[in-house]
Amino acid sequence: MASNNPIDAVITWVDSNDENHRKKLNKYINLYFGTNIPTDDIAGETRYNSIGEIKYCVASILRFAPFIRKIFIVTDNQDPQIESYINQYFPDRTTQIEIVDHKIIFKGYEEYLPVFNSLSIETMLWRIPDLSNNFVYFNDDVFLMAPVKISDWFVDDKVVAYGYWHYYFTAWLLDKYKILTQKGKKMFSYKDSMRNAAVLLNAKYKFWRIVHVPFALKKDAMETYFNEHQDQLLRNISSRFRSHNQFNPQSLFYTLQSKNGKCVHCFNKNKYFYIKPSERNYQYMEREIKKYEKNGELIFSCMNSLDQAESLAQEYLLNWLKRTIKVN
Fold first, then answer.
1. Which of 33, 14, 250 lies closest to 115 in space, CA to CA?
2. Which residue, 18, 22, 163, 169, has fewest beta-carbon neighbours within 10 Å?
3. Ramachandran class of 296: left when φ > 0, alpha when ψ lies in -120 to 50, beta otherwise
4. Are 58 and 97 in contact (CB under 8 A)?
5. 315-320: which pairs have CB atoms within 8 A and are 24 or more residues apart?
6. How far apart, in whole angstroms, are the C-alpha atoms of residue 192 and residue 174?
7. In whole angstroms, what separates CA 73 from the centre of its chain?
8. pTM for this structure?
9. 3-state SS class at 11
10. What are 134's strand-pairing partners?
11. What is the pLDDT of residues 168-211, one digit of tens each?
12. CA-CA distance, 100 to 73, in Å (whole number)?
């Protein structure tokens, strides 16, 4: 399968420390929000901050998924400048690394640029030139933690989806709870974008709740769907910042594949580790990491908003990554 059906990896990345990008971002924040500071769910700083996670993300792919043909890093006129770092640890690598600008994937839709919205960008990833039909999408804070097999992502003509079924009624109860605890304001969540995707496909009662792992996707299925539903594509890419009516493209894809019998659902929580260190203390993270190291099944991890973690927690998590991936 690796030779006849190549598999590529796609990573979306932005560095708000770049002065040009920050000027561009601030210009549109002022234009859209004025003096009202946008909330984290819409355009908070942590959505764009980077502390070098991209190099560990790439290194983890090279270390644990050597069958990946190409790694495409999708950016807005930026360059992570990781070539020398990668060459230091992987001098014999055969995997190509290519930078893809937003202008490439938004060709013909340039009026919607610049965009600062991951949901909009993810909607267009299938338009990367020379992208393999089977590909795996990474956020830059997602990492491989052990050797992976092709079957961890693709089984015959099916994709492997990690997560669980989430019922609408349960989601409604959680929303009510959040409104009460957040003083009447409900944030636009990861879950909400998935529910919006399920509604588009007339999924009844429940939706597939994807988790923070690398997503196995198929270019032809996404291309066919969006070519047939241009209105949905335009609706999702027309928001420069996150909007409450947007859908999650990955969740839409998995719901579609499930309906067509082309999805293998994986419910095994031992395979992935997710943590948002800004919301957890150091002792909790240490306990969780030791637990996952013992189970021997962990292959994926996500460290969300690592830039907001206290220095001790940040150092601990980065050292864990370095030891696991065998880099510095």
1. 14
2. 169
3. left
4. yes
5. 316/282, 316/285, 316/286, 317/275, 317/277, 317/285, 318/56, 320/289
6. 11
7. 12
8. 0.90
9. strand
10. 7, 218
11. 766 555 555 555 555 556 567 778 899 899 889 988 778 889 99
12. 6
